[in-house]
TrEMBL record:
It holds the Pfam family AA_permease_2. Keywords: Cell membrane, Membrane, Transmembrane, Transmembrane helix. It is found in: Cell membrane. The chain crosses the membrane at residues 12-36, 42-63, 84-108, 120-140, 147-167, 187-206, 218-250, 270-296, 317-338, 344-362, 369-390, 396-414. It comes from the Bacteria. PANTHER family: AMINO ACID TRANSPORTER-RELATED (PTHR42770), INNER MEMBRANE TRANSPORT PROTEIN YBAT (PTHR42770:SF11). It is a multi-pass membrane protein. It comes from Mangrovivirga halotolerans. This is APC family permease. InterPro entries: AA/rel_permease1, APC_superfamily. The keyword Ribonucleoprotein does not apply.
Length: 420
């Protein structure tokens, strides 16, 4: 157990939860979902927010019940389903790698735009931020809780001010400016495509033993933080689009919020938004890389990942996991497309959260409607996203299906080989 002086207090847990979600989420997905859902973008965030809130409840419920962190992998282990636990953990690590690559992609685009840089600068920045954070984590200074909380606080304030100012300039015509109005059902498609924006809160379940009085504090803190992020996303979706106009947000989807800030506040706006986006995405990369590397190390320690990942350096850092996962993320950030990375990661997290809700439903004796709502919404959203991927990105879904088959069939062989 962590020393009591190093325990995460409720305010810290709240800030890290919100930061883990907003850090890369809204910066990367807003333009993507507007292109699909148009004036119903706010509803897209609300629909997928239901999955996030119900999943947050289920994560806390199961963490408290088993009095242990580790997320979906640990929960399935407690249910004595080692095979599914191992396969899902591998798939979840793939999801985190995709997520880190999206955050690095966003970092490169937002920072490069402020310097009028092109494709080469974007790729250098994306690869550079991942490389820099790999080095920091290897040096043992990757997890900087107080710094992350400061970044989160400033980031949330910037987004809230932008959203509220946009809504104060109420002009619904901007929600469809330059585009055809979308039907209401497009909100479900848009929400499915960008569910990755709600990833991040479950990282706190890996820190369960560091949370002060988790049986008392974890549930209200996590649920309030996730609920706030859902509310903030809806505000930003409406307010920012009213300031920037739908077509501008779509044409510059990689840097949608910078376009809004520049159009509204000029040079000052672009400076503030670049700083906010840069630090927010960097912090999100850092926390996700740190947590994923430790997750990989813990999984390897339980013989569900090759022992190669169980290695630690002299500072107790899972160095091989950090280098391997970070490097893979950096490669994807400079070679992948935004929408493909976002949608592939979204599908993985929809599946994971659906399973966690199902486990919570099995163990619950009261409030069972909460995980049931999460299960139903996840199933509908997952089916919609699969069909969207098959129609619009058959290559991406083919690669993802190949990885799933490889994980399910090849995992036992790789584990046996690593023991020889």
């Amino acid at each position: 157990m962590a020393d009591s002086n190093n325990k995460l207090k409720p305010v810290s847990v709240w800030a890290l939860t919100a930061g883990g979600m907003v850090g890369g989420g809204i910066y990367t997905v807003l333009g993507v979902v507007i292109a699909v859902s148009g004036q119903w973008t706010w509803l897209s965030f609300l629909i997928t927010g239901i999955i996030a809130i119900t999943s947050a409840y289920s994560y806390v419920f199961l963490s408290n019940k088993f009095n242990e962190g580790g997320g979906a992998f640990t929960f399935l282990k407690e249910f004595n389903d080692d095979k599914l636990a191992g396969s899902l953990s591998w798939l979840l690590i793939v999801g985190y790698v995709l997520t880190i690559s999206v955050y690095a992609y966003a970092f490169g685009h937002y920072v490069a735009y402020s310097f009028h840089g092109g494709g080469i600068m974007i790729r250098i920045l994306a690869a550079g931020i991942v490389a820099g954070l790999i080095i920091l984590n290897l040096a043992g200074v990757g997890k900087m809780t107080n710094v992350e909380i400061t970044i989160v606080s400033v980031n949330l304030l910037v987004l809230l001010i932008l959203a509220v100012y946009g809504i104060s300039q109420w002009n619904p015509a901007e929600l469809v400016a330059g585009i055809e109005p979308r039907p209401v059902w497009s909100s479900l498609i848009g929400g499915a495509a960008i569910f990755m924006a709600y990833e991040g809160f479950q990282l706190l379940s890996y820190e369960y033993d560091r949370i002060k009085k988790p049986e008392k504090n974890f549930m209200p803190v996590l649920l309030s933080a996730v609920g706030f992020v859902v509310f903030l996303y809806i505000l930003v979706a409406v307010g920012a689009t009213m300031l920037g106009g739908a077509i501008s947000m779509i044409n510059f989807k990689q840097i949608a919020l910078s376009i809004v800030a520049e159009k509204t506040f000029g040079t000052t706006g672009i400076i503030v938004m670049t700083i906010a986006a840069g630090f927010a995405t960097a912090a999100a990369i850092n926390s996700t890389l740190f947590s994923t590397a430790n997750l990989a190390k813990n999984i390897a320690d339980k013989n569900e990942l090759p022992q190669w990942f169980d290695h630690k350096n002299d500072s107790g850092i899972p160095d091989r996991s950090i280098i391997f996962l970070g490097s893979l993320s950096g490669i994807l950030a400079v070679t992948g497309s935004l929408s493909s990375l976002v949608e592939a990661a979204s599908l993985i997290f929809i599946v994971t959260f659906g399973i966690v809700n199902f486990l919570a439903f099995q163990e619950s004796k009261k409030h069972r409607w909460v995980p049931v709502l999460g299960i139903i919404t996840a199933i509908i959203t997952g089916i919609v996203l699969i069909f969207r991927l098959i129609i619009s990105k058959p290559v991406a879904v083919g690669i993802l299906m190949f990885l799933i088959i490889l994980i399910v069939l090849g995992r036992p062989y790789l584990l046996n080989s690593s023991k020889k």
